[in-house]
Every structure is written in structure tokens, then in C-alpha cells.
Specification:
single chain; 21% helix; globular; 4 helices
């Protein structure tokens, strides 16, 4: 399905613009319609890595890549920004539930780098990761 989002640069994130869910009755300037990324990717092209940095929409982006993840089982690098994710009703538990719901086994590894916290890598079963 499609989600209507409203750009919210005033949320204080200078690294990008946060998108928040927008009710259909609140249609206004600055809206964007989102859809699953899977519809844009040909199912026969192998995907070996997914990197998501979507300003709080990371879980939503991953949910839109479910077919691709289930097909190719790539390692996944993503951010977890609790305050921005909260605007979508997402919790860390919902991230964990998403990975548990995927076929196969994914380990979630905290990868704080260069002082940034909330950077994660999801490593699929059978993939060696140097810091695992």
C-alpha cells in the first residue's frame, strides 16, 4: 500500500528531512507518497547488501524491501533513531519482531562508529562479519 508522508525539517535533524505519517484528511503542501521499494527492484537481480538511513523511517523502508530480503538474504546496515521512529509508531521491539519474522536467522549487531550511536547491522545466517 501507499503511505502519505509530510516532510518535517523542523524536527531538528540537520542531516536530513524526517518524514512522518500524514492522514488522508490532512493533505497539504510538502506531502510525499511512499510505496514499497520492492516494486522498483526486478526480482531476478541479486542484492548483496542493503543500507538504510531514512531518518526514522528505517523500519518502514525495510518492510518495503521484505520480498528482496527474503529472496537474497543480504546483510543490512541501518540506523535506529528512536525519537523519529516513534512518529511512525515503531519501537525497537518492532524492529526485532521484523527480523524474527524473516525466514532464516538474522543477528542484530550494534555498530557504533565515529561516535554515532544507533548504527546497526543485521547479519544473515551463514554470513561472516568481521566484528561479529
Amino acid at each position: 500500500g501507499q503511505d502519505v508522508m509530510l516532510a518535517r525539517p523542523e524536527l531538528g535533524n540537520l542531516g536530513g528531512v524526517a518524514l512522518v505519517p500524514l492522514a488522508q484528511t490532512q493533505i497539504s503542501r510538502g506531502q510525499f507518497v511512499g510505496w514499497p521499494v520492492d516494486v522498483l527492484l526486478p526480482p531476478h537481480n541479486p542484492i548483496s547488501l542493503i543500507k538504510v538511513d531514512a531518518q526514522g523511517c528505517d523500519l518502514r523502508a525495510l518492510m518495503g524491501l521484505r520480498r528482496t530480503i527474503e529472496t537474497w538474504h543480504p546483510p543490512i546496515l541501518f540506523e535506529w533513531e528512536a525519537d523519529l521512529a516513534k512518529l511512525h509508531g515503531d519501537t525497537w521491539e518492532s524492529v526485532q519482531d521484523f527480523f524474527v519474522s524473516l525466514p532464516g536467522y538474522y543477528r542484530l549487531l550494534d555498530q557504533a562508529t565515529r561516535g554515532y550511536v544507533g548504527c546497526w547491522v543485521a547479519v544473515p545466517e551463514g554470513v561472516e562479519y568481521p566484528n561479529a
